[in-house]
Amino acid sequence: MLKIASVLISTAYPTFGSNTPVVVDGDYHYTNMFDVVVDSFYSALEKLNYGGANVYVAETGWPTRGNPPYTSVENARTYNQGLLKKFTMGSTRATLRRPNVPVVTFFFEMTLFTPNMIPVYDMWNISVSSWVL
């Protein structure tokens, strides 16, 4: 559980592990924080009359250390694999506000290697029953 402004939030929400909506914004029911952040930018752009602009996520990831228990190898693995699964499962590449616009995203591999360049974990080895690339 994460404590944000005296509210407890399950780590499943930011790491793509929630199956039920955590945030409801009108007709939009969000199960992960990534989509909320991207859709917040879309909403802000619409209010500035730039609704046709695309949003590119230049960097996203999860740290492996620094503030335990929230920063851990396991949480980083869960986040990165959840994000990878989102972008390899077809229709989930987009967000609720723009369901037909895939979000271009770049992974930021925060401390995923030891000083000897040995991977901390295998980020790309996830089990997905059907791949749609």
Write the layout of secondary structure elements.
Elements: E1 2-4, E2 7-9, E3 23-25, E4 28-30, H1 33-47, E5 56-60, H2 73-86, E6 104-107
Parallel strand pairs: 5-6
Antiparallel strand pairs: 1-2, 3-4
Describe the model:
By secondary structure, the chain is of the alpha+beta class. The protein has helices at residues 33-47, 73-86, and strands at 2-4, 7-9, 23-25, 28-30, 56-60, 104-107. It has a domain at 33-107. The chain has a two-stranded antiparallel ribbon with strand order 1-2. A two-stranded antiparallel sheet has the order 3-4. The chain is globular and about 50 Å long. The model is unreliable at 126-133 (pLDDT under 50).
Compact description:
With 133 residues, the chain is of the alpha+beta class. It has two helices and six strands; from the N terminus they run ββββαβαβ.
Residue windows where pLDDT falls under 50 for at least 5 positions: 126-133
Shape: globular
Structural class: alpha+beta
Number of strands: 6
Mean pLDDT: 80
Please list the strands of the largest sheet in the order they lie side by side.
1-2
From the N-terminal CA to the C-terminal CA, the straight-line distance is 33 Å
Strand content: 15-25%
Main sheet specs: 2 strands, antiparallel
Radius of gyration: 16 Å
- Helical region count? 2
Helix content: 10-25%
Q: In sequence order, what are the helices and strands, one letter per element?
A: EEEEHEHE
